[in-house]
Amino acid sequence: MQAIAIVLVVMGHSLYMFPDGAHGYDTLLCRMIYSFHMPLFMFVSGFLIQFSFDRGSETVSDSRRFITARARRLLLPYAVLTLVTFVPRAAMGLMAEDQVPLSIHGLIAGMFERESLIIPYLWFVQALFTISVAVFLAVRWARRWGLKPWIAPAAMMVLFAVLRVFGMPSFFSIDYAVKLGVYFVTGCLYCLYAYRIDRLIRWDSITVGLFLSVLWAASFFAFEGTVFFDITGMCGIAMCMALARLMDRAGIRVLDHLEGATYIIFLLSWYFNVGAQQILSHWVEWPWWVHSLLSLVAGVYVPWVIYRLMLRHPNSRLVRMLRVLLGQM
């Protein structure tokens, strides 16, 4: 599911050169991808973080240790990439549609204000940090009071829904954290009760897979606005879960080579999206779809090559430093 999600993310970012004046965001393909690809990422993140909560009382009781680990994983690479990119991004000038001022104010806004981020796609890292820490603290409090495991995620789901109604600031992507938090806690809840849910739903059944695909497609065309985002997002997650189980059942391993590399791909794909579309297009007049295809391939596989090289040379001083800076340790 992580591999499916990262390919969809890079694919959505690779339609920038589509000649519709809206960078491809109005195309049917793009709207379909955006209807569930970030909810899918949040669901998987919530599923996986539940294992951090279950490693033992020591991990759950030590808030500082957990928050520090999340900061190293998420905020350190975010800060490093933002600082490294700031001057080149500002120097791009007219080559970029949204210009970044080369000033202290531009840097501060580019680090903390979602609408002014130096690397626009990294709002997800900010939102994920906020959500994971908030849910962790809720789980810690619930365990201290001896409450049922489902109560903390369910309470956070209600809280996110209420905060959505009142609206939240875009500072540090808090508004997106509230918007996507429901999918994160859904992943937590599924992880807690997967053994029960999987008894009721045969995810690896072709019939179930087709039904969920039809359900997602129907929700995509039937709803709009917040209702569209919630229902279509959940249906898309279920559809992708069925697809992943069907691929596993059929022995289809075409995405297995991306295992472990999805986070680095997410962090670094922006550079190759920009390089293949906005920069290369100023030098080579190719059709838009050629730039998009190059953007997709480069956005997925150049970071993947970097990841594989890091695995091949684990004792290199440079690799150790990169692992720390990119949140791999």
Short description:
This protein has 329 residues and is mainly α. The chain has 14 helices and no strands.
Describe this structure in words.
- There is one protein chain.
- This protein has 14 helices and no strands.
- By secondary structure, the chain is mostly helical.
- The protein has two domains: 1-34 and 260-329, no CATH class; 36-200, no CATH class.
The assigned structural class equals: mainly alpha
Helix content: over 70%
Averaged pLDDT: 88
Percent of residues in beta strands: under 5%
Tally the helices: what do you get? 14
Any key phrases for this structure?
14 helices; 2 domains; 329 residues; mainly alpha; globular
List the helices and strands and how they pair.
Blueprint: H1 2-13, H2 28-34, H3 37-53, H4 57-61, H5 63-91, H6 104-112, H7 123-144, H8 151-166, H9 174-200, H10 206-222, H11 225-249, H12 262-279, H13 288-312, H14 317-325
